[in-house]
Protein: Glycosyl transferase CAP10 domain-containing protein
Organism: Vicia faba
Amino acid sequence: MVKRWAVFSITFFFIYFLFLIDWNPYINHHDTYKITKSTSHSKTIRIINRHQTKYKLNCFNGSHTKTCPKDDSLVHAFHQDHQHSSSSSSSFTCPEYFRWIHEDLKPWNNTGITREMMERGLNISQLRISIIKGKAYVEVYGGSYQTRDLYTVWGIVQLLRLYPGRVPDLELLFETGDATVLDKQQFRRLTPPPIFSYCGQKDSLDIVFPDWSYWGWAETAIKPWEKVLKDIKESSKKIKWKDRIPYAFWKGNSYLSYARRTLRTCNVTDEQDWNTRVYSVNWNNETLQGFKNTKLEDQCTHRYKIYVEGISWSVSEKYILACDSMTMFIKPTYYDFFSRSLVPYKHFWPISNKSICEDIKYAVDWGNAHPEKAKAIGREGTRFVEENVKMMFVYDYMLHLLIEYAKLLRFEPTIHPDAVEVCSENLACPKGGLWKKFMVDSMVKSPSHTPPCTMFSPYDKQ
């Protein structure tokens, strides 16, 4: 009897002890790492319990939050965790377009990137971003359109939260305009400064980086990519392809480029029908009306959709591809980080920029005569963005690009005197309306519990 009581008592207190550990908010939530022995038994290391780590937006001074939390315990712990697990590889490979990272960085393969090269790029960039020991610092050199700079920096801060300890120390320059800034012809004898941009083209040397709209475009009420993709997917299911309007559709600012102005002439008239339906948008009016006429999820009603560049590449590309309609690309000059892997006649139908109206009419007539083939092209384009441009891969692309870029630096990255530390708190807390909502909606809530995808080797090493 005494033995039974002793066994019962020991069991009871052991279970109670486990309950205390699990319940204790300091152990389980505040102190988010645990102490464990390494496999070599030579030292004790900190391993992050990623499933228990939850990030919160702590506006400790309300809308007046200007500084970042000073607690460095998680940063140090994550760095130790990274040192322990950096050799771990993912079970899946990255999408094919990740190979372009090597191509974009090729101009610096032989020389590396020096401090002098970096300084030569200050007058053609808006931001200098430094990442030092897992924290981000920003120095602003020029104005950016709307809040592109804010959401670009926000995206980088979220990357640091998703993969803590994995982003190496670095400095980079970012150009937030539409067009590219590094003309190949100007740097035939001189190594160019490294400039990150939202797009590239065959005659430029800009390093292509995901654009701000993946975290939301508040000025046009476009939600973060994950949410708007879900909305588009649900909406596109409402109308079967065969029941959609059998014409090519485009909606947007039709005055930004020659191609768009030409596209306007393809609209239906009493004399001619080019199978095209073009709707010009006055964004001032749309702002006053709350963007009720420009919701992306309401624009999947036609069998065919048109992608046409504005000043340069357009963020509309991914939204148009997501609609399950056969997408027509009016021959683009620019590309973003993923579009170089799109295949004509598989993911989209190419349209010449020299005979826009005629080519669109032919493509629509062909699609209506071969509906299953046209539907398949639309499905493949949509499948591409759903499977290969999900936010997980957007972050993985950012991570791999920054890792490969940092390998080229031939100087020690520093925090510059005029740089300001940025974090989720001092970026989001002072904002209001959609600006804050979209940041909260796109905020990384916890570290990734899986490693990033495995990178491809460069094209020339296949």
